[in-house]
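Help! Submission page says 'invalid entity' but I think these are all valid:
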Amino acid sequence: MSVKYEVRDGIAILTLQNPPVNGLGLSTRRGLMESLQQGLDDAQVKAIVVTGGARAFSGGADIREFNTADVSREPILNTVITAFERSKKPTVAAIEGMALGGGLELALGMNYRVADQRALIGLPEVKLGILPGAGGTQRLPRAVGLEVALNMIVSGEPVAAGKLDDTKLFDLVVEKDALHAALLFAHEAAAAGTLPKVRDWKIKHTNAEGFLGFARTAVAAASANYPAPLKCVDAIEAAVKQPFDNGIEVERQAFALLINTPESKALRHGFFGERAASKIADIGADVPVREINRIGVIGAGTMGGGITMNFLNAGLPVTLLETKQEALDRGIATIRKNYENSAKKGKLTAEQVERRMGLITPTLSYDDLKQADLIIEAVFEEYKVKQAVFTQLDAIAKPGAILASNTSTLDVDRIAAFTKRPQDVLGTHFFSPANVMKLLEVVRGKQTAKDVLATVMQLSKKIGKTAVVSGVCDGFIGNRMIEQYGRQAGFLLDEGALPQQVDRAIEKFGFAMGPFRMGDLAGNDIGWAIRKRRAIEKPDMKYSKTADLLCELGRYGQKTGAGWYDYKPGDRTAYPSQQVNEMVVQHSKDIGVKRRDISDEEIVERLVYALVNEGAHILQEGIAAKASDIDVVYLAGYGFPIWRGGPMFYADSVGLYNVLAAMRRYAKGHEGKAWEPAPLLVQLAEAGKSFND
Ligand code: 3HC
Ligand code: NAI
């Protein structure tokens, strides 16, 4: 039974029991209706308390149900909430953990709400491309006021109950044991005999019209690609201007429309994809995890410093090792500067800065790493250097310590072989800046032990990363794919496009940044070095020469004040560069290509399908275990538009048949090899299937 019914001292306690977060799926909704009725029918019962236990009152509607018929099967959530609202006996929500989405809407349908001050309260539906569909847009503004409600609904960000203590939403906010407090409250409510209903409350605002106008303009500007936020504003406006039931109807219609939009489907795919990424087929819940209390980081450069900060932020002590005192001092100073900048922006207190800095033990000696449970190296990207480090680690690390490499291009199996304990070695590929970027590729070597992988996946959650497992290959999932995308961007220049046109087209598609602006940010010299290596390792792999010519001009990007674009001192705006554009046009002449007009559609297809095709290879080779893992890499780490669900999901939505047809079209007259379709893509397209089936 997904709702437990019990009566204690004249109060019926309805406990939601649908782990993990008491999603309000069909059986839970039925359970609520039945146990409500039981409480109403029981003459002993004076009041009804609904609780969900310590983890969650409720995380909202069961999102897994959205693609099924159950979503609209009665009792739907509105029916349940109306039944509570009509209850002749007082109803009280006892909120601990969280009341999100439909969970908060359910609580809003009750007469009273008692919350733990730490409980997270929010209507996050907009993040799934929908809007609160069970009265949230109508009741929340009545409970917390127009402005607070609009911000919560449009941003989807939850707030701690303690922060809403001064609103009418909660009758009582407590420091602990909300259920106990709610039971006491229920006795008082039963004695008072009043049954307040949020639907009857008025929304007070001195200038609602003006505020809504302002909100509409701001939301429209910030959400050009999503219909949901503006629909939220519409529904809230109805709450202000129309009778309650009309407002509910406006909300209902918007919900019905949004739930079927491609944007919502894509966002839901991203949500589940991220959670699915932590589930590894051959690693069950029975695989134990190792205890990780002390971290070692080797190399205090760009990556080592950022990696260290992740652990300090999570309260884990880090021993940071360098070869030279100056490098160590420099690394520590950079970490401090980053924290002090956060403090200046009000994100950290001075005390928090000191507490975090106090967790670092700087050292030049490997002996200080003997106690570490996990050691991550972020030293120079050369086998010789990695070998020296791993040989020393092998000699000093305690048995069972996990040894990780942050390499971005080297073979993790070869690195593991530098030790006598390859089962304890894996890759942790952080993205720069490592303290900011959410994505972490966890590279599973041939011999990596299951518990090592499970431990690192669990730890990655603790440090706030979105972790995806990748097999060993050059570039892992993300960079291996981006290389193909970059190659197409280069060919487009050769054939007739200019950098700003390519960037504009793909940014209009929704990428945070086009390939050329991205190159300028990351440094074009990095790709240059990789291509030089490639020329030896994979001489067949063709690239446009324009990127090399750019580097030969010393235009490495923002760091040299010039790259694909011109930059002005202290200004990160990318200004189209005459010198670069002339160089590009001249290069086409030099290689005998007659430049042509290239449509934005072609640019987008070629860049995105290049990702898709390489993604298909990666999937087929088992480097990624599932298509959604690839999508998560691109959503969390590469600025792929989240409302398109990632490259593989996007290809599915276009239809693999169409993707393949476009690729075959591009193969004619273009650099042929780049468009050789991955066998898996052909196979799925011919069978009428999708990557994410
Ligand atoms: N429905 C179904 N499953 C849910 C769920 C939901 N609303 N929320 C979370 N889950 C599942 C996750 O899929 C995951 O399952 P798994 O263990 O099988 O992978 C599990 O709960 C735990 O989730 P997390 O790993 O995310 O755990 P956290 O503790 O980090 O976060 C959370 C918990 C804050 C609830 C987070 O999962 C979350 O933000 N969930 C989405 C909440 C949401 O959007 N609610 C609104 C739903 S739409 C709605 O209510 C419509 C209504 O207005 C009509
Ligand atoms: P970096 O040059 O900024 O830092 C490397 C640091 O390692 C230097 O401070 C150096 O003094 C130190 N070091 C070198 N040899 C050492 C040794 N034997 N023992 C201890 N310390 C030593 O380099 P960066 O960019 O931080 O890269 C480090 C690693 O991370 C490389 O493997 C790189 O491929 C990888 N990486 C880099 C990314 C980036 O964007 N910079 C992204 C993802 C991975």
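Support: the input was valid. A stray whitespace character was the problem, and the output above is from the cleaned input. The chain has a mean pLDDT of 96.
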